[in-house]
Amino acid sequence: MKRGIRFAIGTQASAFALALLWSTSAAMAQVDLSDTAAKPGEHPLAPAIRIAESGLKYIDETVQDYSCTLIKRERINGELGANQHIFVKVRHQPFSVYMYFLGPDDLKTNEAMYIEGRNRGKARCRTGRGLQSKFGWVSLDPNAVMMMKGQRYPITMTGIRYLTDQMIQIGKNDMKFGESEVKFFKGAKINGRECMCIQSVHPTPRKQFRYHMARIFIDEEMTLPVRYAAYSWPKNPGGKPVLEEEYTYVNLKLNNGFTDADFDDKAPGFRSAHDANNKRRLRR
Fold first, then answer.
1. Which of 31, 34, 67, 267 sits between 20 and 30 A of 76, alpha carbons compared?
2. pLDDT per residue over 128-169, tens digit each?
3. Which among 219, 209, 229, 207 has a CA at the least distance from the CA of 250?
4. How many domains does the chain have?
């Protein structure tokens, strides 16, 4: 494994679409998603922004925490990396994150945690392989080189609620400009489940736009986002959009009652996915 511990944090380019989707899906019980057409004179993004704002309120009122397996792929420094599989836990109050890498091999068994307002603002991390594993849990600044290697944003910017809040503002900024095409499609399937796809396209490269095309998929039964993919503009006229990043969420579980024991290795009864896996292996 190369120096440093690499961690999978969503990129800014993905933030608006991902945040919009989570808040959209969370608000489905309160917002009629069949009413997706902009009113006369409105920007095409206006209906989506309204849904996002309602979704943020819904998250604050009803979603305390969640866990999932995140399957992600990102282009870093022009190179599209391999799929990464990560078990993730997030708690909203206080903001807390736990990440356990399931693959690929160079990341497998790495862990990272963060609780806002604790540990002098530092994250905790541990790798389960190689010489670094002998150091156990260590504290690092979330912006430290080892934490940020291959990443654009720190662990402190992880999480649906944070992205929703921040990217509503990005969406409103996009509404200052034209050249936005927003479409809704039903009948898509992700992991065998019926989904609605929301597609947002900026046809022409402009410095104010972060992506060419974003596609977001909402599980229609769970009313939760389960996939997001973002593309940059084609390299050649008439070419295919270039995949920059994609995130697929499976095994989503809401409101698990997470405590400090899920995010702090010093808390009594600390629950580490890596330690739990080791115990299961020993029982065999």
1. 67
2. 777 777 788 999 999 998 887 766 778 887 777 776 676 777
3. 219
4. 1
Would residue 155 count as lying in a domain?
A: yes
Can you tell me which residue has the tokens 């989570």? Answer: 22
CB count, 10 Å around CB of 96?
A: 24
62 occurs within a structural domain = yes
**Which of 35, 30, 26 lies closest to 55 in space, CA to CA?**
26
Residue positions counted in the chain: 284
User: What domain range includes position 198?
Assistant: 12-273
Give the torsion sign (CA, 7, 13, 16, 22): negative
Whole-structure pTM value = 0.81
